[in-house]
Amino acid sequence: MSGFDKVVHSYEEALEGFTDNMTVMVGGFGLCGIPEGLIEQVYKMGCSGLTAISNNAGVDGFGLGKWLEKRQISTMIGSYVGENELFEKLLLSGEMEVILTPQGTLAEKIRAGGAGIPAFFTATGFGTQVAEGKETRNIDGRDYVLEPSLTADFALIKAWKADTMGNLIFNKTAMNFNPMMATAGKITVAEVEEIVEAGELDPNYIHTPGIYVQRVIKGNSFEKRIEQRTVRA
Amino acid sequence: MSGFDKVVHSYEEALEGFTDNMTVMVGGFGLCGIPEGLIEQVYKMGCSGLTAISNNAGVDGFGLGKWLEKRQISTMIGSYVGENELFEKLLLSGEMEVILTPQGTLAEKIRAGGAGIPAFFTATGFGTQVAEGKETRNIDGRDYVLEPSLTADFALIKAWKADTMGNLIFNKTAMNFNPMMATAGKITVAEVEEIVEAGELDPNYIHTPGIYVQRVIKGNSFEKRIEQRTVRA
Amino acid sequence: MALTREQIAMRVAQELEDGFYVNLGIGIPTLVANYIPEGVKVMLQSENGLLGMGQFPTEETIDPDLINAGKQTVTAVTGAAFFSSAESFAMIRGGHVDLTVLGAFEVDQEGNIASWMIPGKLVKGMGGAMDLVAGAENIIVTMTHANKHGVSKILKKCTLPLTGAQCIKRVITELALMEIKDGAFHLIERAPGVSVEEIQEKTEADLVVPDDVPEMKF
Amino acid sequence: MALTREQIAMRVAQELEDGFYVNLGIGIPTLVANYIPEGVKVMLQSENGLLGMGQFPTEETIDPDLINAGKQTVTAVTGAAFFSSAESFAMIRGGHVDLTVLGAFEVDQEGNIASWMIPGKLVKGMGGAMDLVAGAENIIVTMTHANKHGVSKILKKCTLPLTGAQCIKRVITELALMEIKDGAFHLIERAPGVSVEEIQEKTEADLVVPDDVPEMKF
Fold it and tell me: pTM of this prediction?
């Protein structure tokens, strides 16, 4: 078997080496584009003390909301609590450390982590709580905050299609944080809807080259729950 | 006509407002993926005192090599001189200021410029001439150099196909620096091989969204000169 | 008469120009899309990775992989593009979005805005709002002038944690359109039938009132 | 006998492991692709935006839009991907490339490397070399041990402008395979038939020589 065959055949195998107290990135925006099966597996494994990096923390009872139920997360880095009541409760009570990070800064911190950039300046958050304790600097008349990058032991992401070598494509807005997280995990596991042979994805339109991806698993099924079902007449 | 129709019909129109002493980014790697017609037009216009940002400066007599002939560039920011004898001569004689920049740092400085990141740290160039006069910092045990970002008055890029709204796709390794430069020009002009109607490019596989592109021109013809023609038997 | 939410959106929509790329926040800003003036085309940017957001889908075309930043199912218009969150905020932070419309709890005469948390009570998170206020060249804040107890939200100094510092230049409320400059609000337009006195009364901030304050036109 | 260029490439190729992503520089490093061991699959990264570089094209399949970092026309293998220069150097800088092989004018016992310019004489530019030496976890330098006048290029301290500081750990020349650690070169292998004395003679740097220095095997 080639060293480039990244396909694994069970969630156990997909998460081999995942343990308590790790830092884990989880792709998705709200419930859109989340690695449902991998999240479920970590829930089953019951690993705790996790530092979770994800834009949201799912909803009550679904997605990362399940990790919250079991108190698996000790530190949550994200941008939005939203309507997740348990998340808000854990935050307000101080039971879980929450590092609220502006969404664009979060995306860029993850990209930077994957790209070997240890820190960058951004205007976002200057003059707010986000800048407290951080270095600031005026560059060409504008104020900026220095933001360190983020990396993780595992990145759990969701893609639409993968080839066996780990090249990935995403579907529509289910892309969101997934491509950056793919680059920032020491071990990146992609849960996908379909696995095709190498060569079937057009090399000109690959969103995430396989070099970033260590394991690929075909998801058992995707519920793809919708948070705000809005339709026109 | 819609405000999103970016198509212009002459090189004059494509370069309206381009004047002496401007900063201009030019896409391409070697002679691959360069906006041949736009380069030719600037040559014809004879604008001088330019700060040119481009990985290479073409070859003698082709690409940016033509701007060198006319001494249109006062400052060149790039990573590689290569076999361009006139470039090397102008550099060694000091007739043209040359800011040699590591290729990855150059790419990232341009991306950062387009993304509103004024500066970032990178390990590249630490301990070398490149770091002279720049802030350095040890972060988590490793040494880094602070690099400011780059933007330009005009970005002249080459894409494969555009739709009328300025969405772009690139072909193979002719992509190179073009997508980042598209984001970093106050006015970005894309010279393309084919213009299609909006909607004909799959929204899932657009390399450069139209928001970055102000003008699109269909190139008259592309010579696509090859620097190293290597074939197997 | 104070403006309805729809009328606030209509007034904001008058600021749209043909060819604008626009990011509309949740709430009243979302309604702006319903009142785009005739002959004006805009492309809506949704920060979760979509340029060219369209209307809601039908039951038949609903797609869980196609949502907006409010997590609502949407469609994509002709000429749309999808991209990552990093690319999306590169657009925003890099100043490529022409206009951002967003809500607020409070704004003050220094151009500060508070919109993301009420300590001890409500924490929704800042989402993309901090990036939007830092990145967009051109921001319009839509909000109510005062709370239901009549307490002004147009302040000398914000009391809540800030979303952004010194970044807001224009505010449209149910009573007025105001600009912020030189450390004060300037009254530019008033809602039809609303008196300057009422606006002054509900404004805690320094308010510069010119001799003539025209009514908004719809 | 000193190794030929091909033999240096062959020795480097023995360092390749199945599943490695590898960046090969111009010159001798390029030749490594010809000697990939049986049963080992590697993907070649070319920093101009290609992962999965293949062999040269035929006259019929030549494509000016498909070149490598040496500006040579190439092909792409099955499972390849194209991307921008920013993405390419994100891979390199971010440490995702498993092995980088590149040439040098000089290396020294602190792990410094000089490869991009000779002041007043030759300025080719650093291209991607500074990023590659800063980013790759695992670098092999291929070079000649001394110049044609017998002057060593394996130095106590580089004399030419550096490409990278304290980043080189392994060097393969026509005479020897050496590792750099604790401020000295360590002789690991010698070319078949080349004496330790000859290597010492042509090495200006501090050279640690163990009792037994095996010959390279091909």
Answer: 0.97
Contacts of B138 (CB under 8 A, 6+ apart): B144
The series of mean pLDDT values per 10 residues for chain B, 233 residues long, is 88 98 97 97 98 95 95 96 87 92 98 98 97 97 97 98 98 98 98 98 98 97 93 88
Instruction: Tell me which chain D residues have a C-beta less than 8 angstroms from the C-beta of B175.
Output: 49, 82-84
Active site residues of D: 47
Instruction: Give Cα B118 to chain centroid, integer Å.
Output: 19
How is residue B165 written in tokens? 């709204």
Query: Which chain D positions have a beta carbon within 8 Å of A3's beta carbon?
Result: 17-20, 40-42
- Condensed to tens digits (0 to 9), the pLDDT of residues D67-97 reads 999 999 999 999 999 999 999 999 999 999 9
Q: Distance, in angstroms, between A110 CA and closest chain B CA?
A: 14
| CB of B38 closer than 8 Å to CB of B15 | yes
Which residue is associated with the tokens 């070399």? D129
Structure tokens at D122: 């030759």
Taking the Cβ of residue B117 and every Cβ of chain C, the question of whether any pair is shorter than 8 Å is answered with yes
Contacts of A180 in chain C (CB under 8 A): 84-86
Shortest CA distance from B206: residue in chain C: C81
- Residue A1 has a pLDDT of 46
Could you list the active site residues of C?
47
How far is residue B136 from each of residues A87, A190, B143, measured CA to CA in Å?
40, 36, 7
Task: Tell me whether residues B204 and A108 touch, CB distance under 8 A.
Answer: no
Place of tokens 């139920």: A69
- Alpha carbons A9 and A219: distance in angstroms, whole number: 10
**CB nearest B88 (choices: D47, D123, D128):** D123
Label each residue of chain D as H, E or C.
CCCCHHHHHHHHHCCCCCCEEEEECCCHHHHHHHHCCCCCCEEEEECCCEEEECCCCCCCCCCCCCECCCCEECCEEEEEEECCHHHHHHHHHCCCCCEEEEECCEEECCCCEECCEECCCEECCCCCHHHHHHHCCCEEEECCCECCCCCECEECCCCCCCCECCCCCEEECCCEEEEEECCEEEEEEECCCCCHHHHHHCCCCCEECCCCCCECCC
A114 and D90 within 8 Å at the Cβ level: the answer is yes
User: pLDDT averaged over consecutive 10-residue blocks of chain A (233 residues)?
Assistant: 88 98 97 97 98 95 95 96 87 92 98 98 97 97 97 98 98 98 98 98 98 97 93 88
Q: Which tokens go with B203?
A: 């929204």
Enclosing H/E stretch for C38: none
Q: C127-180 pLDDT, tens per residue?
A: 999 999 998 779 999 999 999 999 999 999 999 999 999 999 999 999 999 999
Is the CB of A173 less than 8 angstroms away from the CB of C49? yes
Which of B39, B41, B34 minimizes the C-alpha distance to B10?
B41
Predicted complex ipTM: 0.97
Cβ contact A123–C135 (<8 Å): yes
- For residues A20 and A50, what is the distance between their CA atoms, to the nearest angstrom? 6
Partner chains of D (3+ C-beta pairs under 8 Å): A, B
- Cβ–Cβ under 8 Å, residues B106 and B78: yes
Residue showing tokens 């400085």:
B109
Q: Phi and psi at residue A58, in whole multiples of 5°? A: 65, -160
Nearest to A211 among D21, D40, D76 (CB): D21
Predicted local confidence at residue B81, as pLDDT: 86
Tell me whether residues D96 and A165 touch, CB distance under 8 A: no
Q: Are D79 and D52 contacting, i.e. CB atoms less than 8 angstroms apart?
A: yes
In the DSSP assignment, the letter for residue C153 is S
The pLDDT, as a whole number, for residue D122 is 75
Cβ atoms of B212 and B188 within 8 Å: the answer is yes
Q: In this predicted model, what pLDDT tens digit does every residue of B27-79 receive, in sequence order?
A: 999 999 999 999 999 999 999 999 999 999 999 999 999 999 999 999 999 99
Tell me the C-alpha distance between A181 and A147, whole Å: 17
